TrEMBL record:
This is Variant 2. Keywords: Chloroplast, DNA-binding, Plastid, Transit peptide. Transmembrane segments: none annotated. The keyword DNA-binding applies. It is found in: Plastid, Chloroplast. Signal peptide: none annotated. GO terms for cellular component: chloroplast. GO terms for molecular function: DNA binding. Belongs to the YbaB/EbfC family. Residues 1-22 are annotated as: Disordered. It holds the Pfam family YbaB_DNA_bd. InterPro entries: YbaB-like_sf (IPR036894), YbaB/EbfC (IPR004401).
């Protein structure tokens, strides 16, 4: 144990000498602080870059949403007896029913309206997926991110 004590004492003396040379802080502490500043600085730069990217994504997403809201999609039933119009964000705008559809009775008319609505909805969702994929690609993200929107 005596040799360990001498080694420890010798190490302490070296650190004290180093501390005196470096203005009161040990070299190890200074190196750790410099490394920490470098790492923290890099992390801060990364954080700032991510914040900027997030703002760009938010601005572009709002632009795409406004564009979709202003776009209309028509869906028709077989024979085009009923027409349903939705916006790009799936908001119903209007339903047009022909006299011929009215004469088919309420049960058949209900089916025709549903068929037309489904077609308009499908077109609207497809347009949204395409625009979101375009947004993702313009930001350097991989295509297909909108697959979760099924």
């Amino acid at each position: 144990m005596g040799s360990t004590g001498c080694k420890w004492s010798h190490q302490n003396q070296e650190e004290e000498a180093t501390t005196a040379k470096t203005g009161g802080r040990s070299l190890k502490v200074r190196l750790l602080q410099e490394c920490s500043r470098g790492i923290l600085g890099n992390m801060q730069n990364l954080f700032e870059t991510l914040k900027k990217a997030q703002m760009v994504v938010q601005v572009e997403a709002v632009r795409v949403q406004k564009e979709l809201a202003a776009t209309e999609f028509d869906g028709y039933c077989e024979g085009e007896l009923v027409k349903v119009t939705l916006t790009g964000n799936q908001q119903p705008l209007r339903t047009e029913i022909t006299e011929a559809a009215m004469e088919l009775g309420s049960e058949k008319l209900s089916l025709l309206i549903t068929e037309a609505y489904k077609e308009a909805h499908q077109k609207s969702v497809q347009a949204m997926k395409e625009r979101m994929d375009g947004l993702a690609q313009s930001l350097g993200m991989p295509p297909g991110l909108s697959e979760g929107l099924k």
